[in-house]
Amino acid sequence: MTPFQVAALKGFYKEEGLEVEMIQVNPRLGAMAVMNGDLDFTTTFGSTLRGVLQGLPLRFAAVSVKKSEHFLIARREIKDVQELKGKKIAVSTLLGTDQIAAEEIARSKGFNPALMQPIAVGDAPLRAQALRSGIVDASSISSPHDMMLKDEGFNVLGGPEDIKYALPTSGVAVAVKFLQDKPQLVKQFLRALLKAHRFVFENRAETIQIMTRWLSQTPEVAAHSYQLELVSLARNGEITDYEWERLTEGKKPLAEVRDFTLLRQAQKELGIRQ
Question: N or C: more exposed end of the chain, with fewer CB within 10 A?
């Protein structure tokens, strides 16, 4: 959510003539809220993409976080991914982004992820506690919980740097009708987001300050989070068609999943390379 918060605090939405309210919604409900007109946009990626593949009339207008920021962390006695055969791994929801991230990390290290047993536990604090209590053998978890668990002696078996292809966790999805009826508003929103992306890449110290104040993070945690942003953020708001094909598994034509027409107009207006 960092770029969306940066866009608000730095006045990028206002520069585009927008008044934006960010509302926290269960990821599984975001797509339905947009489709029903209760929200204009959803930033949730994984569950929204599954909804689109199942027929929801939505399109992704941009990708914000292109690569999962999840880490694969295991019990103290487990020091290698190969030791996860038959072991339980805590994930938020079955087939969610964090599970896919853990599988990609395992696969990159030559381990068949089908040999792990995913257990749906819920939000990150619950997944961390499940690991501490021994209910599971490993957990797919994001920052700052990776730092906390590492400090407690748990082993980090892999992270974002091990994920080869795009595995987005955040984007901009909009109803097809809204996209058709209000293209200028959508483009204004995308321009504000791209400005925020550029700001994050070019302003380390101030971005860390924003993270520190907004999320009550320590400077150490915020600096760690910032480094993850540099790895995971889509500077131009896109991922490649090949990466889209991997994500959709060919279940729908890409034109029925994403529409980057307005994004590319915004890129051109802001002098951002595709």
Answer: C
Kindly report, residue by residue over 81-138, the tens digit of the pLDDT. Answer: 999 999 999 998 888 888 989 999 999 999 999 999 999 998 899 999 999 999 999 9
Distance, in Å, from the CA atom of 94 to the CA atom of 32, rounded to the nearest integer, reads: 19
Dihedral over alpha carbons 257, 261, 264, 266 (to 10 degrees): -110
Domain 2-67+167-270 shares a fold with domain 70-162 = yes
Instruction: Determine how β-strand 117-120 pairs with β-strand 138-142.
Output: unpaired
pTM greater than the 0.90 cutoff: no
Q: Which superfamily, per CATH, for 70-162?
A: Periplasmic binding protein-like II (3.40.190.10)
Fold classification of 2-67+167-270 (topology level): D-Maltodextrin-Binding Protein; domain 2 (3.40.190)
Per-residue pLDDT tens for 19-42?
999 999 988 899 999 999 999 999
Q: Is the Cβ–Cβ distance between 102 and 89 less than 8 Å?
A: yes
What are the phi and psi torsion angles at 44 (to 5°)? -70, 135
CB pairs under 8 A, 24+ apart, for 17-25?
17/188, 18/185, 18/188, 18/189, 18/192, 20/189, 20/192
